[in-house]
Amino acid sequence: MPHLPARTRIARLATGAALSLTAAALTSSMLAAPAQAAVPAATGASASSEACIEGAADGTEAARGSHTGVDHREISAAEQARIESRFTKQLKAARKTQDLTAAAAATASGDIPVYVHVMRDSKGNGDVTDAQIAAQIDVLNGSYGGQKSASATDTGFTFTLAGIDRYDNTRWHQDKQSSTYRKQTRQGGANALNMWLVDFDYLGIATFPWDYARNGAIDGIRVHFDSLPGGSSANYSEGETATHEAGHWLGLYHTFQGGCTTTNDEVEDTPAQSSSTTGCPEGRDSCSLPGTDPIHNFMDYSYDSCYLEFTAGQSTRMSQMWTAYRA
Ligand SMILES: [Zn+2]
């Protein structure tokens, strides 16, 4: 997941180093009392929390990565096959339980309650305004409603703000102890989108719906606070990172998943592409398979201004995923 321009990345790294030193020096003292939650045990940056930021090895998370496209987690073909096999079975079972025809499951949708958790540092840095959050919800509704392009699909999903909370905790702000803070702050059920706003070297990281049953306590998306509308991430501050991460949360892979293969992202109307896109390279065609790269698709890594659409096939997949795992 791409995201931050080099200038910002350098500044961010320098800041991170300074904060790490501070954290090391303060280790078991009270680093930051959260505004509303219990202070988490000061365990330091554990190996597991680092692994979490990189993306868990078991398919639980996906990230919108760096500009180089190398720091997102890959899902192997074998892993993808297992996920799809379980999905097929779960969809069948869920249709029976919910008494849905195949067509009804393929068009299912919902009004998704959104809980926004603003993870500020101990000095209050990393805050966003309520107006920015409202604008973010508007972006989600516009993008999932197919309003950015004549060729975009209205997925039927809508988003309603259900709550905002703010915490003052430097570790949480830096996305350290992410499993802990997610477990302590997550709200709602499988249908609720929890969005944690943090400061890390990603634009965003998401969990997938097929992991909700065994890992629901950490279900949701982590999004860079500067990616919200009005934020300062150049090229990535129109709120579309949340759109992308919510796409994973609703069961979509990247459009470049699987590279130049016919299976690729399991969606037929998103042409295969060999790798992630940076910027907005019109006409890019990285595979010899039919179609040019879907650079305007929300599930590529293009600039926010380049993101225009979900396809009908992606909409169907999200509906089926909703039926199987979140309805
Ligand atoms: Zn992604």
Automatic annotation (TrEMBL):
Name its GO BP terms in alphabetical order: proteolysis
Q: Does the keyword Iron-sulfur apply?
A: no
User: What InterPro entries does this protein's entry cite?
Assistant: MetalloPept_cat_dom_sf, Peptidase_M43
Q: Name one Pfam family in it.
A: Peptidase_M43
Which keywords does this chain's UniProt record carry? Answer: Disulfide bond, Hydrolase, Metal-binding, Metalloprotease, Protease, Signal, Zinc
The secretion signal range is 1-37
What molecular function terms (GO) are annotated for this protein? metal ion binding; metallopeptidase activity
Residues covered by the Peptidase M43 pregnancy-associated plasma-A domain: 233-320
Region (Disordered): which ranges?
A: 266-285
SUPFAM superfamilies, alphabetized: Metalloproteases ('zincins'), catalytic domain
The similarity comment for this entry is: Belongs to the peptidase M43B family.
Q: What is this protein called?
A: Zinc metalloprotease
- Naturally occurring in which organism (per UniProt): Nocardioides bruguierae
